[in-house]
Amino acid sequence: MIGFNGVALLALAWLIASPISAQPTQDVFARTKHALVQVRIIDTAGGAKGAIGSGFVATKDGHIVTNYHVISELTQHPGKYRAEWLDTFGKSGVLELLDIDIAHDLAVLSAPGREKIEPLPIELSQPSKGKRIYSLGNPFDLGPTIVEGTFNGLIEKSLYRHVHLTASINPGMSGGPAVNGEGAVIGVNVASAGEQIGFLVPAEFVNKLLERQRSEPLKKFKAEINRQLAANQDEILARLEAIGFASAKLGSYSVPGAIGETISCWSSTDQAKKRVINATTLTCQSDDSVFVSSELSTGALRYSHSLRRARNISSMRFWTLNTQSIGFDWEFLSGDEDEVTNFECRTDLITHAKLKRKTRLCLRRYKDYPDIYDLVLRQISLNHSRTALASTLVLTGVSDEKALSFAQSFIERTQ
After folding, report:
1. What does each C-alpha distance from 349 to 184, 314, 352, 364 come to in angstroms?
2. Residues whose CB falls within 8 Å of the CB of residue 182, separated by 6 or more in sequence, listed in order
3. CB distance 394 to 376 below 8 Å
4. How does DSSP assign 9-75, residue by residue?
């Protein structure tokens, strides 16, 4: 039991410790606030903010780094929007897009009036896990804010390199810097999963973007997005094909399973009494994608296998239900008629590794990005009268050549 003296000592300890623990955060903010800006996307017709984010001065020329998704309207609807900066002291000015890295959700903009501002240094080495870092931004348009967090290293199961940060990254902080105790940028705020789970773009990609920095503003936005998407997604598929599918078992079938540490799989079995078909499903997918516009995200990979067994149903009825499923509902894919073409499909009967199957392969093209496609493959086995394996592969934002090569590998690994 703690007596009066114990309580007094505890209170004294708290009073002493509290200002000391807060001091580093105050020091970091004091050293970095001069370079923090709010990025405002202005609807030219209405003259008011259409979107906001954050950014920071990253070069001696006063160039501002932010997220691509913050300024995406500049690339999707040039002329209908303009960009402005607002610093922590109330000064403002115009922004002009210089370059983007769409795969890593970064953009760099020129900012006349920021040339005399000391840029934040870029730290390429990663902090040790558990190290305290600080995220800066303008959450919910409430003004300059600093948030303490914990560095938890790179996310291993991801197609794109992201840092896991234990901190609250709220809307409006996207594009703001995450810095170490010395005020050097170790990452850029990019997303949040809530519950103190935040994500950063590693500083190495900021550095690469600045190294290829353009002297003139980017003009052909969509042509550059097309080029970057094609190159990045082809590289990712080539890397995944080099690693190869692990083999997974579903009944007597061998199916494509996980791919290294990047693509993980989950399994579930549905045996509800009222169902006429029992199904065990293995689902594998990437956990992230590439933001192109508010209407379109791409760069995802997903595939699944469902082992189906007839239950209290005739073989004919079983196969009627199975063959109906060879069609595909792609409403879950992003993009509408303004962004993508209709799917063009081909249905075939093939035999590989003694497995007879019916396949349906569908492709659609992105209208503004002519080298980019989505692919959906459905296949269902035909060897048994009361058991069937149905598989689906979905690739988004890839070249048709790489997509077809990956689909062929997927078919061959199903045995």
Report:
1. 59, 23, 10, 22
2. 123
3. yes
4. HHHHHHHHHHHHHHHHHHHHHHHHGGGEEEEEEEETTTTEEEEEEEEEE-STT--EEE-HHHHHHHH
Roughly what angle, to the nearest 10 degrees, separates helices 400-412 and 221-243? 20
- The C-alpha atoms of residue 14 and residue 121 are separated, in whole angstroms, by 35
Q: Which residues, 6 or more positions from 296, have their beta carbon under 8 angstroms from its beta carbon?
A: 334, 335, 339, 340, 366
Helix 221-243 × helix 68-76 angle, to 10°: 130
404 close to 375: Cβ distance less than 8 angstroms: yes
pTM: 0.89
Nearest C-alpha neighbor of 373 from the set 347, 405, 346, 341: 341
Integer Cα distance of 228 and 165 in angstroms? 27
283-338 residue pLDDT tens: 999 888 899 998 899 998 999 999 988 887 888 888 777 777 666 556 668 888 89
The span from the CA of 73 to the CA of 79, in Å, is 10
* CA proximity to 289, closest of 334, 244, 247: 334
What sign does the CA torsion over 44, 46, 52, 58 have? Answer: positive
* Average pLDDT for the chain: 89
- Which domains, ranges and CATH numbers included, belong to the chain? 29-219 (2.40.10.120), 227-412 (3.40.1000)
As a whole-number percent, the residues of the chain with pLDDT over 70 amount to 91
Question: What would the two tokens of residue 275 be?
Answer: 């169902």
pLDDT at 13 over 90: no
378: its two tokens: 């459905």
Summarize the chain as % helix, strand, coil (round to 5): 25, 40, 35
Q: Does residue 280 contact residue 269 with C-beta atoms inside 8 Å?
A: yes
CB atoms within 10 A of CB 125: 10
Residue type, position 234, single letter: D
Separation between Cα atoms, residue 377 and residue 363, nearest integer Å: 9
Q: Could you tell me which of 102, 66, 107 has the C-alpha nearest to residue 86?
A: 66
Distance CA 200, CA 178 (A): 8
pLDDT at residue 152 greater than cutoff 80: yes
- Reported in sequence order, the residue ranges of 102-204 that DSSP labels E, i.e. its strands, are 106-110, 132-137, 145-154, 163-166, 177-179, 185-194, 197-202
Per residue in 27-57, pLDDT (tens digit) is: 999 999 999 999 999 999 998 999 999 999 9
